[in-house]
Amino acid sequence: MLTKDLLRYKTQNGQIYPQFVKPIDTKLLAIAEQLIAVFEESPDKPRATLLETSKHIVDSTPGAPIVKRGLEKLLLDRTEFDTTPNEELIAFREKLFTETSRLLSQEQFENHADYQRKVLGTMAEELLSEVAPTEEDLAAKLYADLPSCQPVLAFKTLSAEHLLHRYNTAQVQGLLLHSDTLTLKLTDSMTAELRQLFKYLRFNQLLSTIRKEEELYQISVDGPLNLFYKTKRYGINLANFFVAVLHQPRWELAAEIQFRNKQRYRLSLDESCGIKPISQQFLAYIPEDIQLFQTMLRNKTDDWQIRPGSQFIPLPGDLYCFPDYQLVHKNGVETAIELFHPWHQGHLIARLNTLAEQTDVSLILGVSKELEKKPFIAEALAASTYFSQFGFIFRDVPTIRTLLPILNALVWSTTHIAEKM
Amino acid sequence: METPLKINFDKGTLILQNVPEPLQTQLPDTRWDERTLTFRAPAYRYRHIISRLRAHDIKYQDTARQFSVEPFTHQQTMSPYPYQTEAIDAWHANGKRGVVTLPTGAGKTFIAILLIADTQRPTLVHVPTIDLMHQWYTVLKEHFGQDVGLYGGGYHELRDLTVTTYQSAVMHAPYYGNRFGFAIFDECHHLPSDQYQYAAISSIAPFRLGLTATPERVDGKESRLYALVGEPCYEVKVQELSGKTLSAYRVVTIAVEMKDTERVRYEEARRTYLNFLKQERINMGTPRGWHFFLWKASLTDEGRAAFKAYLAQKQLSFASTTKQEWVWKLIQRHTGDRILIFTQDNDTAYQLGTRFLLPVLTHQTKLKERNDFLNKFREGTYSILVTSKVLNEGVDVPEANVGIIVSGSGSVREHVQRLGRILRKREGKQAVLYELISKQTGEHFVNKRRRQHHAYEKK
Question: Which of A4, B180, B202, B445 could form a disulfide with B173 if both were Cys (CB 3.0 to 4.6 A apart)?
Fold first, then answer.
């Protein structure tokens, strides 16, 4: 991510406009390629050498330095340095300082040069120099393990175009760090991209309110304490969440940005900003847990097909949820499963409250054993009529053994109601 | 049968269910949350909510609280000084909450130890630095003879006695904020910052203690500190303890003349920097001045030159050759003493360390060597330590009796804290703090302003 001093934006009439670079700008692409090449060649070189070389490119190429320093920062974020302590140097320092402390507390010196000569005399062997060691030798060796001397272990490379898209993403993330909430409008997102979006949402400990306005879903995203404070406590969570927004085909994002306690600006963005997603796309990818679940289900029954959750389920009170799995029975009965892990207790309580008076089955609730161990949750589950009918407990992943009776009951009741009608 | 009110902890907040209608508007900071369809309150309101429920004789089911009474056994038999006993009594009288203000070296940690033993609740100690975290760890272990948890700086272990950094607590309190009944905030003047305050907000701990030598903040947010930890309940000023519990001390300011060549470079760099400020109409006296300067400086070659000039003039006033010569003179003058040398930045610290072949302690020093430096300094193997800012706060080096401030941020707090490092009482100890100030530079005027603080005033 970019620090505040590397952000480029303009403000006008209460709006804030991030200043994106053009990912097709050939001059900038060439500079990005040069910088990437420097970082690709950096393994085993000290940090100071890497920074000196990249600084040379930043200083000697045309274009705004702030942009180039931003690119350099993003590349540094992908660089791993060897930070393990240098035991040999630590032992050397211990010997040296024991000796200098002894000298300084016991002797007076005419001048500083006399003192250095005396130290050099006693430390000559330690310096392992074939020729007589000098003050410079000693100075160079003394703190030769500071961060500027640490060698590069690895660099995770990327293409120049990808770097420019990352740069634009980082410009938005850098602003979102200074926001307390964001609103997202989604259309045309009735696909698996939503699954990723909601995984990011939950992973980042955020809460959401989903409302539907005709064909448009409006999602407000913030954190638990936003109810009480206009806090930027969740700015980092919102910034991390933004990468999932980029996977949506059509989106509009709005957020209020406030640096320190200054004026608030409104950030408005949509997919026309042209930033390409920087995280992996899972659309064609079936997650491992789903694959496992599919196999287990096929082994037990041919009646049900399972797939990753791909659409919102309407809930009472004009609310929506996004399930983990959706299941279709061969006779057309559809249902969905929402899973609650140990970190989802707030979500679970909310869901139980929402479904408290519900008799139509739209959602099966799976609750992790860990979560159930909490007395508060155990009691809420025991008190929920809905959960007693349409809920189950799982350890690591849901099992067909616990799920199948609920599914069968569901088919039976649906068929039964249909027959009566 | 009526369902009882339920209260539970959720990500640094409290979720309340089945709240009777008349009570819904009476519980402090408790609001209806549309997102989860429950009532919600910030976790730090736990004590107030429970008190209100008890006052109304309302039955409730509390699954938020995940701690119980812990019979901590205090193993050391030191007796507190009278003012420490007074501080403890004042804290109890204040409802087991509140801020205790004592000078550095006056034994704030010992007060906390006695209160942990009194309170008998799992305790989380918050500190601003890794060094302080390790120091508290050692002290708690010695006093209670049991394992102590660490959270922060690569450690993730929770125990009934745990020490964490503020930074780590902000990140993790939403997960463990209901595990501790007693929260101690060391150097608590840090707490009201925009982010750190959430360490206190996200915790349900009903008992809270703030410890500091200087609660005042430039931004005036002390009131936030008192809202989260409790009102100030006890204070003793440095003059009241000087020569008694604290060592007698004197502050010696040495005005240092730059060498001619450095003076020329200084004047030239300062002119370039000031001309740029004037040209761009940047007022560094305003809160946004510094950020505006950074932004403007990044836009043009001239701006970058001005920024370099700014750094150069600052560096020259911080670490002129004459200052380095003075450091050498003072080292020679205090042969046999235990000396701490403070600088504003790491570069100057390493410059001095390399020139005089001395151990340098900065945040870049790895943990093992850092502990080794401190231990060797305490036991006398090393007589001098050079440091930038990591020893400003809290770290206990009672043997130090001479401080040399080569450069600093100019804030009152920093100087009072640095003074505090050499004030711990030792038999016959006379502490002396030298300030090296470059004549006719910005440093000179900052020093003049700072001397208004009571720590500089004569008794």
Answer: B202
